[in-house]
């Protein structure tokens, strides 16, 4: 293995017999709270097992990195993958809203949205119908998020 020039990214080159194999990293790192050490304690070196953060493919259980040639492996591509094209670009060359700094991801669960909201009628709490309770705290919160520029994308 050869480390990239000052990047901290490790690379390895191997033959075709590496294709379709799986691997994990055993990474030794300093952890300040390992073995119960207090935050001001000395900590310890611990070994963590991890997948490759630059993986293009993982094992079905997500536990191991899959070595593959994604460009020449049609069985790994979703339908329409090769025809996929980015939309019109902004001045920066990126599609509008495609930069991670431009995105906001807001996840909520139907039950959690209103289960404890006393402003929602009891028969609607924790159910889809709560989204129609326009005067509830939960719906007002979603309205405020929309007013701040967050909008749903299908």
Helices and strands in order, then pairings?
Layout (H helix, E strand, L loop, with lengths): L1 E2 L6 E2 L10 E2 L1 E7 L12 E7 L14 E2 L43 H5 L22 H11 L7
Antiparallel strand pairs: 1-2, 3-6, 4-5
Short characterization:
The chain is 10% helix and 14% strand.
End-to-end gap: 43 Å
- The CATH topology assignment of the largest domain is Immunoglobulin-like
Overall 3D form: extended
- SSE-based structural type: alpha+beta
Sheet with most strands: strand arrangement: 1-2
| CATH architecture annotation name of the largest domain | Sandwich
How much helical structure, as a percent, in the residues?
Answer: 10-25%
Gyration radius over CA: 24 Å
Task: Characterise the protein shown here.
- By secondary structure, the chain is α+β, with helices and mostly antiparallel strands.
- The protein has 2 domains: 76 residues, Sandwich (Immunoglobulin-like); 48 residues, no CATH class.
- It contains 2 helices and 6 strands, in the order ββββββαα.
- Strand 1 and strand 2 form a beta hairpin.
- It is extended.
